[in-house]
Amino acid sequence: MRTSDKVERTGHIDARIYNDNRVVTLMTAFLDRQSTVAPPGFNRFLVPPAALAVHLSIGQVYAFSTFNLPLTRLLGVTASAPGNWDLKQVGWIFSIAIVFLGSSAAAFGRWVERVGPRKSMFASALCFGGGFLVSAVGIHLHQLWIIYLGYGVLGGCGLGIGYISPVSTLIKWFPDRRGMATGMAIMGFGGGALIAAPLSVLLMAHFKTATSNGVLETFVTMGVIYFMFMMIGVYAVRVPAPDWKPAGSTAPAKPKQLVTSANVAVDLAWRTPQFWLLWVVLCMNVSAGIGVLGQASPMIQEIFTGRVTAAAAAGFVGLISLFNMIGRFFWASTSDYIGRRNTYMIFFALGIVLYASVPSLGHIGSIPLFVAAFCIILSMYGGGFATIPAYLRDIFGTYQVGAIHGRLLTAWSVAGVLGPVLINYIRQYQIDSGVPKAQAYSITMYIMCGLLLLGFLCNFAMHAVNETFFHRGSTQ
Amino acid sequence: MKGRMVVLWTLVGIPLLWGVMKTLQNALKLFQ
Protein backbone atom coordinates (compact mmCIF):
# COMPACT_ATOMS: atom_id res chain seq x y z
CA MET A 1 0.00 0.00 0.00
CA ARG A 2 1.31 3.42 -0.96
CA THR A 3 1.88 5.99 1.80
CA SER A 4 -0.72 8.35 0.29
CA ASP A 5 -3.32 5.51 0.33
CA LYS A 6 -2.44 4.74 3.95
CA VAL A 7 -2.90 8.40 4.92
CA GLU A 8 -6.22 8.56 3.02
CA ARG A 9 -7.53 5.37 4.73
CA THR A 10 -6.44 6.54 8.18
CA GLY A 11 -8.21 9.82 7.44
CA HIS A 12 -11.44 8.00 6.60
CA ILE A 13 -11.27 5.98 9.83
CA ASP A 14 -10.57 9.15 11.84
CA ALA A 15 -13.54 10.87 10.21
CA ARG A 16 -15.77 7.89 11.02
CA ILE A 17 -14.62 7.78 14.64
CA TYR A 18 -15.16 11.56 14.82
CA ASN A 19 -18.66 11.22 13.36
CA ASP A 20 -19.49 8.25 15.62
CA ASN A 21 -18.32 10.20 18.66
CA ARG A 22 -20.42 13.16 17.54
CA VAL A 23 -23.52 10.98 17.24
CA VAL A 24 -22.88 9.54 20.72
CA THR A 25 -22.32 13.04 22.15
CA LEU A 26 -25.50 14.37 20.52
CA MET A 27 -27.49 11.36 21.72
CA THR A 28 -26.13 11.73 25.26
CA ALA A 29 -26.99 15.43 25.26
CA PHE A 30 -30.49 14.70 23.93
CA LEU A 31 -31.15 12.13 26.65
CA ASP A 32 -29.66 14.25 29.41
CA ARG A 33 -32.05 15.49 32.10
CA GLN A 34 -30.89 19.08 31.60
CA SER A 35 -32.02 19.11 27.96
CA THR A 36 -35.54 18.07 28.96
CA VAL A 37 -36.17 21.13 31.16
CA ALA A 38 -39.19 22.88 29.63
CA PRO A 39 -38.81 26.47 28.38
CA PRO A 40 -41.04 29.18 29.91
CA GLY A 41 -44.59 29.09 28.53
CA PHE A 42 -44.48 25.35 27.88
CA ASN A 43 -47.97 23.81 27.94
CA ARG A 44 -48.01 21.07 30.60
CA PHE A 45 -50.74 19.14 28.74
CA LEU A 46 -48.04 18.08 26.25
CA VAL A 47 -46.55 15.78 28.90
CA PRO A 48 -49.45 13.31 29.48
CA PRO A 49 -49.39 12.05 25.85
CA ALA A 50 -45.65 11.39 26.26
CA ALA A 51 -46.42 9.28 29.33
CA LEU A 52 -49.32 7.62 27.53
CA ALA A 53 -47.07 6.63 24.59
CA VAL A 54 -44.95 4.60 27.01
CA HIS A 55 -47.78 3.18 29.12
CA LEU A 56 -49.96 2.24 26.12
CA SER A 57 -46.97 0.25 24.81
CA ILE A 58 -45.93 -1.58 27.95
CA GLY A 59 -49.60 -2.30 28.78
CA GLN A 60 -49.26 -4.92 26.04
CA VAL A 61 -48.15 -7.33 28.77
CA TYR A 62 -51.78 -7.76 29.91
CA ALA A 63 -52.61 -9.17 26.45
CA PHE A 64 -49.66 -11.57 26.30
CA SER A 65 -52.05 -14.51 26.70
CA THR A 66 -53.04 -14.06 23.01
CA PHE A 67 -49.64 -15.63 22.20
CA ASN A 68 -49.97 -18.54 24.61
CA LEU A 69 -51.76 -20.98 22.32
CA PRO A 70 -49.81 -20.07 19.14
CA LEU A 71 -46.53 -20.52 21.07
CA THR A 72 -47.57 -24.10 21.91
CA ARG A 73 -48.11 -24.83 18.20
CA LEU A 74 -44.87 -23.59 16.64
CA LEU A 75 -43.93 -27.03 15.30
CA GLY A 76 -47.37 -28.34 14.38
CA VAL A 77 -48.77 -24.92 13.26
CA THR A 78 -52.48 -25.93 13.39
CA ALA A 79 -52.24 -28.50 16.20
CA SER A 80 -49.74 -29.35 18.93
CA ALA A 81 -46.94 -31.69 17.79
CA PRO A 82 -44.27 -33.67 19.72
CA GLY A 83 -41.50 -31.35 20.90
CA ASN A 84 -43.81 -28.37 21.27
CA TRP A 85 -43.97 -26.43 24.55
CA ASP A 86 -47.06 -26.86 26.74
CA LEU A 87 -49.27 -24.08 28.14
CA LYS A 88 -47.75 -24.36 31.61
CA GLN A 89 -44.22 -23.74 30.27
CA VAL A 90 -45.39 -20.86 28.08
CA GLY A 91 -47.38 -19.36 31.00
CA TRP A 92 -44.08 -18.71 32.79
CA ILE A 93 -43.14 -16.01 30.25
CA PHE A 94 -45.86 -13.69 31.61
CA SER A 95 -45.07 -14.55 35.24
CA ILE A 96 -41.34 -13.83 34.79
CA ALA A 97 -42.17 -10.51 33.08
CA ILE A 98 -44.42 -9.44 36.00
CA VAL A 99 -41.82 -10.45 38.60
CA PHE A 100 -39.16 -8.45 36.73
CA LEU A 101 -41.58 -5.53 36.39
CA GLY A 102 -41.84 -5.26 40.17
CA SER A 103 -38.19 -5.95 40.93
CA SER A 104 -36.77 -3.65 38.24
CA ALA A 105 -39.11 -0.82 39.32
CA ALA A 106 -37.76 -1.28 42.84
CA ALA A 107 -34.11 -1.64 41.78
CA PHE A 108 -33.97 1.16 39.19
CA GLY A 109 -36.25 3.67 40.95
CA ARG A 110 -33.40 5.86 42.22
CA TRP A 111 -31.62 5.73 38.86
CA VAL A 112 -34.83 6.84 37.12
CA GLU A 113 -35.11 9.78 39.54
CA ARG A 114 -31.46 10.74 38.93
CA VAL A 115 -31.27 10.56 35.14
CA GLY A 116 -34.75 11.92 34.45
CA PRO A 117 -37.67 10.67 32.40
CA ARG A 118 -36.17 10.87 28.89
CA LYS A 119 -33.18 8.62 29.46
CA SER A 120 -35.24 6.14 31.50
CA MET A 121 -38.01 6.04 28.88
CA PHE A 122 -35.34 5.40 26.24
CA ALA A 123 -33.89 2.56 28.33
CA SER A 124 -37.40 1.18 28.75
CA ALA A 125 -38.04 1.34 24.97
CA LEU A 126 -34.74 -0.46 24.28
CA CYS A 127 -35.51 -3.19 26.83
CA PHE A 128 -39.16 -3.66 25.87
CA GLY A 129 -38.65 -3.55 22.09
CA GLY A 130 -35.43 -5.57 22.46
CA GLY A 131 -37.27 -8.14 24.56
CA PHE A 132 -39.57 -8.86 21.61
CA LEU A 133 -36.62 -9.17 19.21
CA VAL A 134 -34.64 -11.48 21.50
CA SER A 135 -37.80 -13.59 21.94
CA ALA A 136 -38.18 -13.76 18.17
CA VAL A 137 -34.71 -15.38 18.08
CA GLY A 138 -35.94 -17.84 20.73
CA ILE A 139 -38.97 -18.66 18.57
CA HIS A 140 -36.76 -19.10 15.50
CA LEU A 141 -34.43 -21.49 17.34
CA HIS A 142 -37.32 -23.01 19.34
CA GLN A 143 -35.50 -22.34 22.62
CA LEU A 144 -37.91 -21.37 25.40
CA TRP A 145 -35.19 -20.12 27.74
CA ILE A 146 -34.31 -17.40 25.23
CA ILE A 147 -37.94 -16.19 25.39
CA TYR A 148 -37.84 -16.28 29.20
CA LEU A 149 -34.71 -14.15 29.00
CA GLY A 150 -36.01 -11.90 26.19
CA TYR A 151 -39.62 -11.05 26.98
CA GLY A 152 -39.47 -12.18 30.62
CA VAL A 153 -36.25 -10.63 31.94
CA LEU A 154 -35.32 -7.93 29.39
CA GLY A 155 -38.92 -7.02 28.53
CA GLY A 156 -39.85 -7.18 32.23
CA CYS A 157 -37.13 -4.62 33.03
CA GLY A 158 -38.56 -2.43 30.25
CA LEU A 159 -41.97 -2.75 31.89
CA GLY A 160 -40.72 -1.76 35.35
CA ILE A 161 -38.58 1.18 34.21
CA GLY A 162 -41.26 2.39 31.77
CA TYR A 163 -44.00 2.15 34.38
CA ILE A 164 -42.30 4.47 36.88
CA SER A 165 -40.50 6.77 34.38
CA PRO A 166 -43.22 9.40 33.87
CA VAL A 167 -44.84 9.24 37.32
CA SER A 168 -42.78 11.75 39.31
CA THR A 169 -42.54 14.05 36.26
CA LEU A 170 -46.34 14.16 36.02
CA ILE A 171 -46.67 14.79 39.75
CA LYS A 172 -44.32 17.77 39.40
CA TRP A 173 -46.24 19.14 36.39
CA PHE A 174 -49.65 18.80 38.04
CA PRO A 175 -49.23 19.68 41.75
CA ASP A 176 -52.88 20.80 41.72
CA ARG A 177 -54.21 17.60 40.03
CA ARG A 178 -51.78 14.84 40.90
CA GLY A 179 -54.36 12.08 40.82
CA MET A 180 -55.72 13.09 37.43
CA ALA A 181 -52.24 13.35 35.90
CA THR A 182 -50.92 10.01 37.10
CA GLY A 183 -54.33 8.44 36.47
CA MET A 184 -54.11 9.52 32.85
CA ALA A 185 -50.72 7.84 32.37
CA ILE A 186 -51.55 4.68 34.28
CA MET A 187 -54.85 4.48 32.38
CA GLY A 188 -52.60 3.89 29.38
CA PHE A 189 -51.23 0.73 31.00
CA GLY A 190 -54.79 -0.63 31.18
CA GLY A 191 -55.56 0.60 27.67
CA GLY A 192 -52.44 -1.06 26.25
CA ALA A 193 -54.09 -4.47 26.48
CA LEU A 194 -57.14 -3.25 24.59
CA ILE A 195 -54.86 -2.30 21.69
CA ALA A 196 -52.42 -5.21 21.89
CA ALA A 197 -55.00 -8.02 21.94
CA PRO A 198 -56.63 -7.20 18.56
CA LEU A 199 -53.28 -6.03 17.13
CA SER A 200 -51.59 -9.38 17.93
CA VAL A 201 -54.48 -11.33 16.40
CA LEU A 202 -54.44 -9.11 13.31
CA LEU A 203 -50.66 -9.44 12.82
CA MET A 204 -50.62 -13.21 13.36
CA ALA A 205 -53.42 -13.61 10.78
CA HIS A 206 -51.48 -11.38 8.37
CA PHE A 207 -48.19 -13.28 8.66
CA LYS A 208 -49.70 -16.77 8.81
CA THR A 209 -48.54 -19.18 6.09
CA ALA A 210 -48.87 -22.93 5.49
CA THR A 211 -45.62 -23.53 7.43
CA SER A 212 -45.79 -20.80 10.10
CA ASN A 213 -48.45 -19.42 12.42
CA GLY A 214 -46.90 -15.95 12.13
CA VAL A 215 -45.81 -15.55 15.77
CA LEU A 216 -42.15 -14.96 14.89
CA GLU A 217 -42.94 -12.20 12.41
CA THR A 218 -45.52 -10.72 14.82
CA PHE A 219 -42.90 -10.51 17.59
CA VAL A 220 -40.43 -8.72 15.29
CA THR A 221 -43.10 -6.31 14.04
CA MET A 222 -44.40 -5.56 17.53
CA GLY A 223 -40.86 -5.03 18.84
CA VAL A 224 -40.24 -2.40 16.15
CA ILE A 225 -43.71 -0.77 16.45
CA TYR A 226 -43.53 -0.50 20.24
CA PHE A 227 -39.98 0.85 20.18
CA MET A 228 -40.98 3.57 17.72
CA PHE A 229 -44.18 4.40 19.61
CA MET A 230 -42.28 4.70 22.89
CA MET A 231 -39.80 7.03 21.16
CA ILE A 232 -42.70 9.52 20.77
CA GLY A 233 -42.71 9.68 24.56
CA VAL A 234 -38.90 9.95 24.71
CA TYR A 235 -39.01 12.89 22.30
CA ALA A 236 -42.00 14.71 23.85
CA VAL A 237 -41.34 14.40 27.59
CA ARG A 238 -40.22 17.49 29.50
CA VAL A 239 -39.54 18.22 33.15
CA PRO A 240 -40.60 21.53 34.71
CA ALA A 241 -37.97 24.10 35.72
CA PRO A 242 -37.22 23.86 39.47
CA ASP A 243 -39.03 27.14 40.24
CA TRP A 244 -42.01 26.43 37.94
CA LYS A 245 -45.55 26.68 39.29
CA PRO A 246 -48.85 26.33 37.42
CA ALA A 247 -50.44 29.66 36.46
CA GLY A 248 -52.74 31.02 39.15
CA SER A 249 -51.66 28.47 41.75
CA THR A 250 -51.84 29.53 45.38
CA ALA A 251 -50.92 27.60 48.49
CA PRO A 252 -54.05 26.23 50.24
CA ALA A 253 -55.14 28.42 53.17
CA LYS A 254 -55.54 25.36 55.39
CA PRO A 255 -53.14 22.43 54.85
CA LYS A 256 -55.00 19.29 53.78
CA GLN A 257 -55.05 16.34 56.11
CA LEU A 258 -52.46 13.65 55.19
CA VAL A 259 -50.83 15.88 52.54
CA THR A 260 -47.28 16.75 53.53
CA SER A 261 -45.19 19.68 52.36
CA ALA A 262 -42.04 17.90 53.60
CA ASN A 263 -40.02 15.21 51.79
CA VAL A 264 -38.85 11.73 52.74
CA ALA A 265 -35.95 10.02 50.89
CA VAL A 266 -36.52 6.56 49.48
CA ASP A 267 -34.01 4.87 51.81
CA LEU A 268 -35.89 6.16 54.85
CA ALA A 269 -39.39 5.91 53.37
CA TRP A 270 -39.40 2.14 53.34
CA ARG A 271 -38.52 2.10 57.03
CA THR A 272 -41.69 3.96 57.95
CA PRO A 273 -44.90 2.16 58.97
CA GLN A 274 -46.73 4.28 56.36
CA PHE A 275 -44.80 2.60 53.53
CA TRP A 276 -45.79 -0.88 54.72
CA LEU A 277 -49.39 0.13 55.38
CA LEU A 278 -49.58 1.36 51.79
CA TRP A 279 -47.79 -1.79 50.63
CA VAL A 280 -50.53 -3.94 52.20
CA VAL A 281 -53.24 -1.57 50.88
CA LEU A 282 -51.96 -1.99 47.31
CA CYS A 283 -51.29 -5.72 47.68
CA MET A 284 -54.80 -6.47 48.99
CA ASN A 285 -56.53 -4.29 46.39
CA VAL A 286 -54.54 -5.89 43.56
CA SER A 287 -54.85 -9.47 44.89
CA ALA A 288 -58.64 -9.22 44.93
CA GLY A 289 -58.83 -7.88 41.36
CA ILE A 290 -56.04 -9.80 39.62
CA GLY A 291 -57.42 -13.19 40.64
CA VAL A 292 -60.75 -12.35 39.02
CA LEU A 293 -59.11 -10.93 35.88
CA GLY A 294 -57.22 -14.16 35.25
CA GLN A 295 -60.25 -16.41 35.82
CA ALA A 296 -63.01 -14.17 34.43
CA SER A 297 -63.74 -16.24 31.33
CA PRO A 298 -64.14 -19.70 32.95
CA MET A 299 -65.82 -18.14 36.01
CA ILE A 300 -68.76 -16.57 34.14
CA GLN A 301 -69.18 -19.70 32.01
CA GLU A 302 -69.24 -21.96 35.07
CA ILE A 303 -71.52 -19.78 37.20
CA PHE A 304 -74.04 -19.38 34.35
CA THR A 305 -73.61 -22.87 32.86
CA GLY A 306 -75.15 -23.16 29.40
CA ARG A 307 -76.13 -19.47 29.26
CA VAL A 308 -72.74 -17.86 28.49
CA THR A 309 -70.74 -19.06 25.46
CA ALA A 310 -66.94 -18.86 25.16
CA ALA A 311 -67.30 -15.89 22.75
CA ALA A 312 -69.60 -14.07 25.17
CA ALA A 313 -67.14 -14.81 28.00
CA ALA A 314 -64.38 -13.22 25.90
CA GLY A 315 -66.66 -10.19 25.59
CA PHE A 316 -66.99 -10.15 29.40
CA VAL A 317 -63.18 -10.18 29.76
CA GLY A 318 -62.94 -7.28 27.30
CA LEU A 319 -65.62 -5.32 29.14
CA ILE A 320 -64.02 -5.66 32.57
CA SER A 321 -60.62 -4.72 31.01
CA LEU A 322 -62.28 -1.58 29.67
CA PHE A 323 -63.58 -0.73 33.15
CA ASN A 324 -60.12 -1.48 34.55
CA MET A 325 -58.85 1.26 32.21
CA ILE A 326 -61.67 3.76 32.82
CA GLY A 327 -61.41 3.26 36.60
CA ARG A 328 -57.77 4.32 36.50
CA PHE A 329 -58.64 7.79 35.25
CA PHE A 330 -61.99 8.15 37.04
CA TRP A 331 -60.95 7.14 40.56
CA ALA A 332 -57.53 8.82 40.46
CA SER A 333 -59.17 12.09 39.32
CA THR A 334 -61.89 11.73 41.97
CA SER A 335 -59.18 11.32 44.63
CA ASP A 336 -58.05 14.90 43.92
CA TYR A 337 -61.38 16.07 45.35
CA ILE A 338 -62.25 13.54 48.07
CA GLY A 339 -58.69 12.65 49.21
CA ARG A 340 -56.65 9.48 48.69
CA ARG A 341 -57.56 7.80 51.96
CA ASN A 342 -61.28 8.27 51.37
CA THR A 343 -60.91 6.90 47.83
CA TYR A 344 -59.33 3.70 49.15
CA MET A 345 -62.02 3.51 51.86
CA ILE A 346 -64.58 3.39 49.03
CA PHE A 347 -62.55 0.73 47.15
CA PHE A 348 -62.45 -1.54 50.17
CA ALA A 349 -65.95 -0.95 51.59
CA LEU A 350 -67.74 -1.10 48.24
CA GLY A 351 -65.50 -4.01 47.17
CA ILE A 352 -66.52 -6.03 50.24
CA VAL A 353 -70.23 -5.41 49.54
CA LEU A 354 -69.88 -6.33 45.84
CA TYR A 355 -67.75 -9.46 46.37
CA ALA A 356 -70.15 -10.64 49.09
CA SER A 357 -73.12 -10.17 46.75
CA VAL A 358 -71.58 -12.10 43.81
CA PRO A 359 -72.66 -15.58 45.04
CA SER A 360 -76.26 -14.29 45.44
CA LEU A 361 -76.20 -12.67 42.00
CA GLY A 362 -75.03 -15.98 40.53
CA HIS A 363 -77.73 -17.81 42.48
CA ILE A 364 -80.57 -15.61 41.19
CA GLY A 365 -79.12 -15.93 37.67
CA SER A 366 -78.89 -12.24 36.83
CA ILE A 367 -76.15 -11.82 34.20
CA PRO A 368 -76.50 -8.00 33.86
CA LEU A 369 -76.18 -7.48 37.64
CA PHE A 370 -73.26 -9.95 37.80
CA VAL A 371 -71.48 -8.13 34.95
CA ALA A 372 -72.20 -4.71 36.52
CA ALA A 373 -70.76 -5.85 39.87
CA PHE A 374 -67.52 -7.01 38.24
CA CYS A 375 -67.25 -3.87 36.10
CA ILE A 376 -67.30 -1.77 39.29
CA ILE A 377 -64.89 -4.16 41.08
CA LEU A 378 -62.41 -3.98 38.18
CA SER A 379 -62.73 -0.20 37.93
CA MET A 380 -61.58 -0.06 41.58
CA TYR A 381 -58.75 -2.51 40.86
CA GLY A 382 -57.44 -0.12 38.17
CA GLY A 383 -58.23 2.86 40.40
CA GLY A 384 -56.01 1.40 43.11
CA PHE A 385 -53.00 1.33 40.77
CA ALA A 386 -53.62 4.84 39.49
CA THR A 387 -54.25 6.52 42.85
CA ILE A 388 -51.23 5.07 44.66
CA PRO A 389 -48.57 7.45 43.17
CA ALA A 390 -50.56 10.50 44.31
CA TYR A 391 -51.11 8.85 47.74
CA LEU A 392 -47.34 8.30 48.01
CA ARG A 393 -46.71 11.94 47.09
CA ASP A 394 -49.18 13.09 49.75
CA ILE A 395 -47.44 11.00 52.42
CA PHE A 396 -43.74 11.21 51.40
CA GLY A 397 -43.47 14.41 49.31
CA THR A 398 -42.29 14.90 45.72
CA TYR A 399 -38.58 14.19 46.27
CA GLN A 400 -37.85 10.57 45.14
CA VAL A 401 -41.58 9.70 44.91
CA GLY A 402 -40.83 7.75 41.71
CA ALA A 403 -38.26 5.60 43.51
CA ILE A 404 -40.64 5.02 46.45
CA HIS A 405 -43.35 4.07 43.95
CA GLY A 406 -40.92 1.61 42.36
CA ARG A 407 -40.29 -0.11 45.69
CA LEU A 408 -44.01 -0.23 46.47
CA LEU A 409 -44.64 -2.06 43.21
CA THR A 410 -43.12 -5.20 44.77
CA ALA A 411 -46.62 -5.48 46.32
CA TRP A 412 -47.88 -6.01 42.77
CA SER A 413 -45.44 -8.89 42.22
CA VAL A 414 -46.65 -10.57 45.42
CA ALA A 415 -50.31 -9.95 44.56
CA GLY A 416 -49.71 -11.32 41.06
CA VAL A 417 -48.98 -14.68 42.67
CA LEU A 418 -51.32 -14.48 45.69
CA GLY A 419 -54.56 -13.49 43.86
CA PRO A 420 -54.56 -16.15 41.12
CA VAL A 421 -53.30 -18.86 43.50
CA LEU A 422 -56.15 -18.17 45.96
CA ILE A 423 -58.81 -18.20 43.23
CA ASN A 424 -57.45 -21.24 41.35
CA TYR A 425 -56.54 -23.48 44.28
CA ILE A 426 -59.63 -22.82 46.38
CA ARG A 427 -61.88 -23.34 43.34
CA GLN A 428 -60.11 -26.64 42.57
CA TYR A 429 -60.29 -27.74 46.21
CA GLN A 430 -64.04 -27.02 46.26
CA ILE A 431 -64.63 -28.97 43.03
CA ASP A 432 -62.51 -31.90 44.32
CA SER A 433 -64.64 -31.88 47.51
CA GLY A 434 -67.78 -32.38 45.41
CA VAL A 435 -69.08 -28.78 45.30
CA PRO A 436 -70.87 -28.05 41.96
CA LYS A 437 -68.80 -25.83 39.62
CA ALA A 438 -71.41 -23.04 39.70
CA GLN A 439 -70.99 -22.71 43.48
CA ALA A 440 -67.23 -23.29 43.65
CA TYR A 441 -66.51 -19.55 43.59
CA SER A 442 -68.61 -18.60 46.67
CA ILE A 443 -65.90 -19.31 49.26
CA THR A 444 -63.32 -17.55 47.06
CA MET A 445 -65.47 -14.41 47.00
CA TYR A 446 -65.73 -14.40 50.79
CA ILE A 447 -61.93 -14.81 51.05
CA MET A 448 -61.57 -11.79 48.74
CA CYS A 449 -63.81 -9.90 51.21
CA GLY A 450 -61.34 -10.87 53.96
CA LEU A 451 -58.40 -9.52 51.95
CA LEU A 452 -60.26 -6.28 51.33
CA LEU A 453 -61.09 -5.98 55.04
CA LEU A 454 -57.37 -6.23 55.84
CA GLY A 455 -56.70 -3.50 53.25
CA PHE A 456 -59.46 -1.37 54.79
CA LEU A 457 -57.91 -1.62 58.25
CA CYS A 458 -54.41 -0.71 56.99
CA ASN A 459 -55.81 2.27 55.10
CA PHE A 460 -57.77 3.30 58.19
CA ALA A 461 -54.54 3.20 60.24
CA MET A 462 -52.74 5.60 57.85
CA HIS A 463 -51.32 8.71 59.50
CA ALA A 464 -48.70 11.38 58.75
CA VAL A 465 -45.00 10.43 58.72
CA ASN A 466 -43.02 11.29 61.84
CA GLU A 467 -40.83 14.32 61.13
CA THR A 468 -37.65 12.49 62.20
CA PHE A 469 -37.84 10.85 58.74
CA PHE A 470 -37.96 14.19 56.86
CA HIS A 471 -35.21 14.96 54.35
CA ARG A 472 -33.26 18.08 55.39
CA GLY A 473 -30.90 18.51 52.41
CA SER A 474 -31.42 19.77 48.86
CA THR A 475 -34.22 18.17 46.86
CA GLN A 476 -32.87 19.16 43.43
CA MET B 1 -47.43 24.64 20.50
CA LYS B 2 -51.11 24.04 19.63
CA GLY B 3 -50.17 22.05 16.50
CA ARG B 4 -47.81 19.90 18.53
CA MET B 5 -50.55 19.31 21.09
CA VAL B 6 -52.98 18.13 18.38
CA VAL B 7 -50.37 15.83 16.79
CA LEU B 8 -49.32 14.23 20.10
CA TRP B 9 -52.84 13.64 21.40
CA THR B 10 -53.90 12.25 18.00
CA LEU B 11 -50.92 9.87 17.92
CA VAL B 12 -51.85 8.33 21.26
CA GLY B 13 -55.60 8.79 20.93
CA ILE B 14 -56.19 6.93 17.67
CA PRO B 15 -54.73 3.57 18.78
CA LEU B 16 -56.53 3.86 22.11
CA LEU B 17 -59.90 4.58 20.46
CA TRP B 18 -59.33 1.69 18.05
CA GLY B 19 -58.68 -0.66 20.98
CA VAL B 20 -61.75 0.57 22.87
CA MET B 21 -63.91 0.14 19.75
CA LYS B 22 -62.69 -3.43 19.18
CA THR B 23 -63.31 -4.26 22.86
CA LEU B 24 -66.85 -2.90 22.75
CA GLN B 25 -67.56 -4.92 19.57
CA ASN B 26 -66.55 -8.07 21.46
CA ALA B 27 -68.43 -7.08 24.60
CA LEU B 28 -71.69 -6.83 22.63
CA LYS B 29 -71.61 -10.62 22.21
CA LEU B 30 -72.24 -10.91 25.95
CA PHE B 31 -75.71 -9.43 25.61
CA GLN B 32 -76.70 -11.01 22.26
Name a few traits of the molecule.
A: 476 residues, mainly alpha, 73% helix, B: 32 residues, 1 helix, 81% helix
Report on this structure.
The complex is a heterodimer of chains A (476) and B (32). With 476 residues, chain A is mostly helical. Helix content of chain A is 73%, strand content 0%. Chain A has helices at residues 3-31, 47-58, 68-71, 87-115, 117-141, 144-164, 167-173, 178-207, 215-236, 266-269, 273-303, 310-338, 340-364, 367-396, 401-408, 410-432, 442-460. Chain A is flat, with a radius of gyration of 24 Å. The model of chain A has no long low-confidence stretch (mean pLDDT 89). Chain B is mostly helical and 32 residues long. Chain B contains one helix and no strands. Chain B is rod-shaped, with a radius of gyration of 14 Å. Chain B starts with a helix and ends in a 5-residue tail after the last helix. Classes of the chains: A mainly alpha (476), B mainly alpha (32). At the A-B interface, α2, α8, α9, α12 and α14 of A face α1 of B.
How is this structure best summarized?
By secondary structure, chain A is mostly helical. Chain A is built from 17 helices and no strands. Chain B is mainly alpha-helical.
Question: What is the topological layout?
Answer:
The complex is a heterodimer of chains A (476) and B (32).
Chain A: H1 3-31, H2 47-58, H3 68-71, H4 87-115, H5 117-141, H6 144-164, H7 167-173, H8 178-207, H9 215-236, H10 266-269, H11 273-303, H12 310-338, H13 340-364, H14 367-396, H15 401-408, H16 410-432, H17 442-460
Chain B: H1 2-27
